[in-house]
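Technical note accompanying the year-one report. For the benefit of new consortium partners, we illustrate the data format agreed upon in the data management plan: each record pairs a sequence with a structure-token string. No post-processing was applied to the example shown here.
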Amino acid sequence: MPVNRIIAMLEHSERSGGRARPKIQHWWRTRWPVQLRRLVALALMSLIAALTTPFAPTPALAFDSRLLRYPYLTDLVGSSAIINWATSQPNQAGRVRWGKVGTESCTAHATPASSTPIRVNQVVEYQWKSLVQLMPGAEYCYRIYLGSDPPIDLLGSDPSPHFSAQLPAGSTQPFAFAISGDWGAVDVNGNNTDQANLMQRIATSGARFAITTGDNAYPAGSQSNYGDLVQTGGNISGVFGPAFWTVAGASIPLFPTIGNHGLSSSTTSHPQLLNFPQDNTVKGSGRRYRAFLHPSCRMERDQ
């Protein structure tokens, strides 16, 4: 639509009984120079286009059927990170293979993983984690494996995820991070289109890490609410469903704050602490209650 047409529409948009309101037209024309009106019109066009253009659908994944939670990053601080995932089968051998992008293959190094049994909607699954050592600021890629004779590449034909280690201390390189909260809710069919679109935005944002402000996995922060890649339904798989944190988590580490939803849990291993291990983050903070201020917000974290 031509800019002049939009300006004309704006000038003539306020009507009452078929008569344009002259005071509004006069204010619009006298207080807003024509160049500024055109800029406003262009901004409105961009906003309308952004709001009406649908996101591309999440690409189909081709991982092994034994993988129930796609790999995701936590505790990426200093010179290390934790890579997490879940499987349908137990095994004494689980591992991550990883390497530095540009100088090594994605399987140059191997680090063992440990597992803990969990129940997701009454289905027994196995939550894995592996600590990998990194060079600050470098970019890495990785793959995850189950078993040893032969090892099963759980990512199948999916490409190796890439991520960046934390910037070294004293770095002046600018960076971005994402913040969200009150998330992980799905309808009776296991859908949440707005949340899926948000995950797509975070995944393509260029953020080095993400933070949540609490209330993760509605309504109670249970393992069923967190879910997996397979099970769907009301209040199931609001976080680890294929359209949600699966989309961003393989490359963007998450530092979640716990809220009142999910604070209490009768399970031996608290779901948030098991799903999002942050051992080095807590250690580096001195295990203190931490808060920081920003002109536009106040954020707090208690570990």
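Partners are asked to follow this layout when depositing records. The longest helix spans residues 34-52.
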